[in-house]
């Protein structure tokens, strides 16, 4: 058990480094720059990926401007604060570096190993992992006490929550900084144990797994979607899987099955679906109405264990 962290210990964040320029990273890059108004760097494996992330951010800034949420000066200020690079040396003066790269422990360890050589001794490291062990991600760090889990939800601009994950090594300064940063981003933060799926994905993996199971059992997709409505969720389980991405959902399921084999269903069907384009069919309002024929075939061919 842990008490509320002492805000006085928080490190002032003057420049944010983001590693990864994919869907989640680009979304929270915009949030950092918009809410903290500090320089934000994004990077990825190559310039094409960096450019794709930057294009998304510039597009969203233009949308906010068109909606009247940002005036021209404010939008230009954001454009000036966000920068993409493939040169990690530029991260040297970042005091808060968060990664959202491929969900594999080895990849994340390698990324942090490289960045730790570059950043200052007291810079904070954060991982947006959705379900991997934060302690394991930090296992190769010289300074594992500076690492904290900082898990966003999709769509980042709208979802009000961040899960902050403390490992047995996380220093109070890192934890406190994470809470102050989350507040600066306008999010509610909850402190979770470093347990598989933390809290939210543990619940979502159940919801998604049970929804898929109901389809294997013969309930049509659209009916499963409707049947979930009384739970008060803002969208049905398949629409949610579509939002977070089938690959991400499959990965979360894998992690949960590995951690709790007796409590979660194996998900080979999610993997097969993740390879298809346009898995779900939607009506004009974007609601899921069914699966494509190819996806139906995959579902029928894979009955979860
Ligand atoms: N990016 C930015 N803004 C977005 C957005 C996006 N992708 N999607 C929606 N929004 C904004 C809209 O612009 C709109 O803003 P405005 O009112 O200021 O114009 C606002 O959100 C509401 O959008 P809509 O009216 O179009 O749609 P809804 O009212 O139907 O809400 C929703 C859409 C917010 C996505 C809602 O359905 C929802 O909350 N769904 C559940 C999402 C969820 O559970 N996410 C968690 C996924 S798990 C996860 O991410 C963890 C990972 O580790 C797997």
From TrEMBL:
3-hydroxyacyl-CoA dehydrogenase C-terminal domain span: 197-277
Residue ranges the record marks as coiled coil: none
Residue span(s) of domain 3-hydroxyacyl-CoA dehydrogenase NAD binding: 15-194
Similarity comment: In the central section; belongs to the 3-hydroxyacyl-CoA dehydrogenase family.
Name of the protein in question: 3-hydroxyacyl-CoA dehydrogenase
Organism: Microbacterium terricola
Residues of the full protein shown: 330 to 634 of 714
